[in-house]
Amino acid sequence: MNHGLRRRLPVALAAVIVLGFLGLFFAWPVAAIVGLGLRGEAGAVLVEPSTWRLVGFTLGQAAASTAVALLAGLPLAYVLARLAVPGRGLLRVAVTVPFVLPTIVVGMAFRALFGADAGVLAIVLANAFFNVAVVARTVSGLWSHLDRRMEDAARSLGASRLRAFTSVTLPALLPALGSAASVVFLFSATSFGVVLVLGGGELRTLETEIYLRTVQLLDLPGAAALSLLQLAAVVAALLVATVARRRRETALRLRAPSDTARRPQGAEWWVVGLAGLVLCGLGTPIVTLLLRSVSTRDGWGLAGYRALLGTGQNGTLEVTGLEAALNSVRTAVDATWMALLFGLLASFVLVAIRRRAVAESLDLALMLPLGVSAVTVGFGYLITLGSLPGDLRTSPLLVPFAQALVVTPLVIRMVLPVLRAIDERLRQAAATLGAGPWRVRREIDVPLAARTVLAAAGFGFVIALGEFGATGFLARPDAPTLPVAIARLLGRPGELNSQLAYAACTLLMIVTVLGVVLIERLRGRTDAVEEF
């Protein structure tokens, strides 16, 4: 076997595994559900005025959420990037926590804050709360590398602080701002748990409407048509994010982050104050949720936490709250090792591909599961996977596979930049000394990327732990995860059910916070979400 073939064979094998996973657990189910629906009268749905009102609300609330997230995230980005203030590590944790909180926990927190009749404002604020971290850490990742001397030169020529920012700094930050805005818009447009909890059945987005038509109305043609509209919006947002990320990766980086940070001076204390107000805003729903979890009709109490050992009022659940929590842990562990396997293989392939157009096309394809309706994918599983040997529809690994499909793109976004940053000459030197492709990866890449891989594992675990979209559709009644159990408790009357739901949300939130602290300790100063 010649050297070139020997070098290409592992890449080809890894690509086959990754594409096989993507095809089996994403492309095939989505194509099946869309194809099944399009056999009916799906086209009629696209011309209904109600459909375009639905599209208008989806895009409108996503745009409003994006604007709020940008305004709230910029002061935090400035503090993280430019100011040497005490507790910046704690600030990074505080900013990241909302992003990895389960969507149903965020929905419940804002429900506790606004009440059961929460409306559009609550949905917009909840989506912005969820995505402030994307703005803060994406923008700060670039801002921390911009040389202050460019702004100082503009000031010395007579420009005001605002003029220096708008004419020098802002243009340099536009790639990061564009990348962050497109990702926030994507996440807000496909938000499921937040809208389901806060919409009250009256306010619906494309995502929740697809769920309604598929699960309750069995309107596959209508759901398929809406899925196509949503897919078009997702692809457009991902293309914008890809272009913006490419510009950010090639942006001029003159200084190390440690050289650009300094103690706050003058008007910069106003920015610190704004960042503090944003942090208070981020903390308010969380504190409200904590207080609600210990609030009863008779005063303060721990009835909800004690109820975790039971099945809710009048046996609402088929398992206890504790068993649902253990189900969540088991499925999250399985989803994490699957996502790591496929995410690392995909990163290996993307680094090895020399043609940029091919690499970017594959990268875009791997990001698509983040934006396509989880309901569409889940229902597609039930249609397609029964034809395989062993009928995966009854397998306990079905839910972890669905969660891994969501987590894998996030693993790639964390690991890929680290692998690309490794000096290629190290790999070439190892190959010259006779090391094969797999040994090169084992001896060079693994030690340098190990901390990031461990952080990706923690990040994937907390995301899978709170995944609700696909899990809510696929989990069996006798084996629900904790987010699914919370949703079922919300749909049943009774004070004990409500208390149990809020206690379960608090439990999920505590585990998530601990996971974020571990991720930050592993990654150090590296940003967990800046490479979206």
Automatic annotation (TrEMBL):
Pfam families: BPD_transp_1. InterPro entries: MetI-like (IPR000515), MetI-like_sf (IPR035906). The keyword Hydrolase does not apply. It is found in: Cell inner membrane; Cell membrane. One of its GO terms (biological process) is transmembrane transport. It is a multi-pass membrane protein. The chain crosses the membrane at residues 12-38, 58-81, 93-114, 120-143, 164-187, 223-244, 269-291, 335-353, 365-385, 397-419, 448-466, 500-519. This is Thiamine transport system permease protein. It comes from Saccharopolyspora gloriosae. GO terms for cellular component: plasma membrane. Keywords: Cell inner membrane, Cell membrane, Membrane, Transmembrane, Transmembrane helix, Transport. Residues 55-241, 325-519 form the ABC transmembrane type-1 domain. It comes from the Bacteria. Belongs to the binding-protein-dependent transport system permease family.
